């Protein structure tokens, strides 16, 4: 294929410059040809990469739209967390029975959407799930949870803020 | 041709980007975040941690958690300014064998480039996972004031991480590349970078037009390595604490747990006040005393925030003035100002910069990501993905044709990247119409006459046929230079006619903006005009259908029904010229209702039904579904 291409190009130039069959002219033509072949490959590479990028982009868009629902859910849950935190604090500080019921109701409703609360005293500290606020000793065990962590469909949306014993 | 990763290796946070489909795109890390804390640690169990995970355990492990390593890279032990930074961090450091600095993590000592390599390694691994391909090359950015030793150390960090560093580029230069401010020779650009912990100001000049980073030179640079958004956060925290102390008598800054909540609330308030004039700081159960739990509820206004931030903004502007004086240029010479760093989102900071330079600052590229974006573009240039010949344009205004009723039917919407082609199939408006006129218009207005006429031509030789039957495919093709070619082809005969228009690319920016603004201003009235045209077309359609039904079912329809239908036809014809949309619509609906009785009548007569035509009569071309 390449050879045929070569013949075509040389023939085309030859028709234009019939009088210039000198070695110098041929050398010039060969240089031009080499440049053209190089450029052709470059452009083809670029075109193929562009096509591939587009195909990949379409594939990712399709994946992302499935992802979009998960992200929307995570964002919605995240926006509710400050209110949940306050409820948790209320239960902790005031021991309110109504507060406890409301908290449970809230958590139960969210669990049906795949939301899980985590972080408990006695658990080993894990920086993948917990953020340490203070350390009281050398142990790597959680002494208390200042703010619970939450995951949506197993993906952590907020680590638990803990005190290490 | 593997991708070259663009990396903004920051003091507090890092970011990465690559070229994809000709556009730079930030890559999220494995935690799903667009920035990665520049923090590394050796955990108590000996595990190497990097990024967000390392930061989360910092409090439990301060001696083995290394952050802000960028302050030490390329420096020697005992260098001026470094000792203060060394004293400020909880991890141990010492003089290295070659006179450099070494830091301790776990039981081992590391050079700063080895620590930076751990951050780069995490970014590399996360990028490979996202892209599904190996990454072996990178462009890394450094501050403009970095000396050779610091630049080489950064390159070494890349090498240790398994990255061939194709180029080390200046952060302000990367920001300029992100905005494409490297195209005009002699262009002067100021980059104002107010980040979390550092402030840098750079004055750049484009010495060579084109895509190469070498075409941008730094004419002066200045800054403060200890001035940043964190200072403003601290002021807000202090203000909140003082206000709370006034009413409760408790200084919550002494409680580390309350402190954490204050920190978060202060940052949240600062961010909200970039768009709102007032915000509420609400921290329930922040502390407790003899009377029980105490809650913090405070209103903060933007004016208050600006008052608290004023000294830092002033310091930044004083340094900016110094940088301008050290450069060969006057303020009036500056062509563009770029804002970098999240803190520049604060309106007061933007206003101060814009007032100083007497021009609008560029903020459209995310200020937290702009440096990484620029690094990716540089990677694209080096990798051959970004070439001047591949810089694609968009058409500034929509291109369309005039269809029935004088409506502008757009074929190519504005901001479509070119080169591009679009086709749509149209038909005839009247029975036995043997030619169609293709009138090409440019603009956003709903009616063709309100837009710029680019040209017209006629396609004739269409075989006579009932209206709506012929299929005329109209194709628009815009090449990379914005030249429009329009072709109309009768699918039945393959007869075609075309025109080439160069004027579509000749409008000035001002003209384009005016046309867009006109469209916005007239949106409501244009909508009404289109509605009127559509309802008239529908009425026309109803009349055509009714006449055809009467003709096709002659003899099968009772005389009274025929009279009633004719009366309704007359009523619709009479109303068609009215400007009252509701009137025309009602008349057409009444006709359609009357017409539906034809079916019943024909069925009763026991003959074959010839239902009324579904396609309505047209006065011009009517777009059909694209095939």
- Tally the beta strands of chain B: 28
The CATH class of chain A: Mainly Beta
Q: What is the overall pLDDT average of chain B? A: 89
Shape descriptor of chain A? elongated
Helicity level of chain B, as a percent range?
Answer: 25-40%
In one word, what is the shape of chain B?
Answer: elongated
What is the CATH superfamily of chain A?
A: Head domain of nucleotide exchange factor GrpE
What class would the helix/strand composition of chain B place it in? alpha+beta
Poorly predicted parts of chain B: 612-620, 622-627
Instruction: Give the largest chain-chain interface (CB within 8 Å).
Output: A-B, 32 and 28 residues
pLDDT averaged over residues of chain A: 83
Can you describe this structure?
The complex is a heterodimer of chains A (165) and B (627). With 165 residues, chain A is α+β, with helices and mostly antiparallel strands. Chain A has one domain: Nucleotide Exchange Factor Grpe, Chain A, domain 2, CATH 2.30.22. In chain A, 62% of the residues lie in helices and 18% in strands. The longest helix of chain A is centred in the middle third of the chain and has 72 residues. Chain B is elongated and about 110 Å long. Chain B has 627 residues and is of the alpha+beta class.
């Amino acid at each position: 294929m390449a050879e045929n291409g070569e013949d075509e190009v040389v023939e085309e130039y030859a028709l234009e410059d019939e009088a210039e069959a000198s070695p110098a002219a041929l050398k010039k033509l060969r240089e031009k040809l080499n440049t053209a072949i190089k450029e052709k490959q470059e452009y083809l590479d670029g075109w193929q990469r562009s096509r591939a990028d587009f195909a990949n982009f379409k594939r990712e868009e399709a994946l992302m739209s499935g992802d979009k629902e998960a992200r929307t859910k995570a964002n919605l849950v995240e926006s509710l967390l400050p209110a949940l935190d306050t409820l948790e604090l209320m239960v902790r500080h005031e021991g309110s029975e109504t507060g406890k019921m409301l908290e449970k109701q809230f958590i139960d409703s969210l669990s049906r959407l795949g939301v899980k609360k985590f972080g408990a005293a006695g658990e080993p500290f894990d920086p993948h799930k917990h953020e340490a606020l203070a350390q009281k000793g050398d142990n790597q065990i959680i002494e208390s949870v200042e703010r619970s962590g939450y995951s949506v469909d197993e993906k952590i949306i907020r680590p638990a803020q803990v005190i290490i014993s | 041709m593997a991708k070259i990763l663009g990396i903004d290796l920051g003091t507090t946070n890092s970011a990465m980007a690559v070229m994809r489909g000709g556009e730079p795109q930030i890559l999220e890390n494995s935690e799903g975040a667009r920035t990665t804390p520049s923090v590394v640690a050796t955990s108590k169990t000996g595990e190497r941690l990097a990024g967000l995970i390392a930061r989360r355990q910092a409090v439990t492990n301060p001696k083995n958690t290394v952050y802000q390593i960028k302050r030490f890279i390329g420096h020697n032990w005992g260098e001026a300014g470094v000792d203060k930074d060394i004293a400020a961090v909880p991890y141990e450091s010492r003089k290295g064998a070659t006179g450099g600095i070494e830091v301790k993590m776990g039981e081992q000592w590391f050079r700063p480039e080895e620590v930076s390599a751990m951050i780069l390694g995490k970014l590399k691994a996360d990028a490979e996972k996202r892209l599904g391909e190996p990454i072996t090359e990178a462009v890394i950015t450094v501050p403009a004031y970095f000396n050779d030793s610091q630049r080489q150390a950064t390159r070494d960090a890349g090498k240790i991480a398994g990255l061939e560093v194709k180029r080390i580029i200046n952060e302000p230069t990367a920001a300029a590349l992100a905005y494409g401010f490297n195209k005009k020779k002699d262009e002067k650009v100021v980059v104002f970078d107010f980040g979390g912990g550092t402030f840098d100001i750079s004055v750049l000049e484009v010495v060579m037009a084109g895509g190469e980073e070498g075409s941008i030179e730094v004419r002066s640079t200045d800054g403060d390595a200890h001035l940043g958004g964190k200072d403003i956060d601290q002021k807000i925290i202090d203000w909140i604490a003082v206000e709370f102390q006034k009413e409760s008598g408790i200084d919550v800054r002494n409680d580390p747990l309350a402190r954490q909540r204050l920190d978060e609330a202060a940052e949240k308030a600062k961010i909200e006040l970039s768009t709102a004039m007032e915000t509420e700081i609400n921290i329930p159960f922040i502390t407790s005393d003899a009377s029980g739990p105490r809650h913090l509820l405070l209103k903060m206004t933007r004016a208050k925030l600006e008052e608290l931030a004023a000294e830092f903004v002033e310091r930044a502007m004083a340094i900016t003035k110094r940088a301008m004086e050290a450069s060969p240029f006057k303020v009036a010479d500056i062509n563009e100002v770029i804002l970098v760093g999240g803190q520049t989102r604060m309106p007061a900071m933007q206003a101060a910069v814009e007032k100083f330079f007497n021009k609008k600052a560029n903020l459209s590229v995310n200020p937290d990501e702009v440096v990484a974006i620029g690094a990716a573009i540089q990677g694209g240039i080096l990798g051959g993905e970004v070439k001047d010949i591949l810089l694609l344009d968009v058409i500034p205004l929509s291109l369309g044709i005039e269809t029935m009723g004088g409506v502008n039917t757009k074929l190519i919407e504005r901001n479509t990247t070119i080169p591009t082609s679009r086709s749509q199939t149209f038909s005839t408006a009247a029975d036995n119409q043997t030619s169609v006129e293709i009138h090409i218009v440019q603009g956003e207005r709903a009616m063709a006459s309100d837009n710029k006429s680019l040209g017209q031509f006629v396609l004739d030789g269409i075989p006579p046929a009932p209206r709506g039957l012929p299929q005329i495919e109209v194709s628009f093709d815009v090449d990379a230079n914005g030249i429009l070619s329009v072709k109309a082809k009768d699918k039945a005969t393959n007869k075609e006619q075309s025109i080439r228009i160069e004027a579509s690319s000749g409008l000035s920016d001002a003209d384009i903006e005016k046309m867009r603004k006109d469209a916005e201003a007239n949106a409501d009235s244009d909508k009404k005009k289109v509605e009127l045209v559509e309802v008239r077309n529908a009425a026309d359609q109803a009349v055509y259908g009714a006449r055809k039904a009467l003709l096709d079912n002659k003899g099968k329809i009772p005389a009274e029904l025929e009279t009633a239908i004719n009366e309704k036809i007359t009523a619709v014809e009479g109303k068609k010229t009215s400007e009252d949309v509701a009137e025309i619509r009602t008349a057409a609906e009444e006709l359609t209702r009357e017409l539906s009785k034809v079916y019943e009548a024909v069925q009763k007569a026991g003959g074959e039904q010839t239902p009324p035509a579904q396609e309505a009569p047209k006065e011009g071309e009517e777009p059909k579904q694209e095939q």
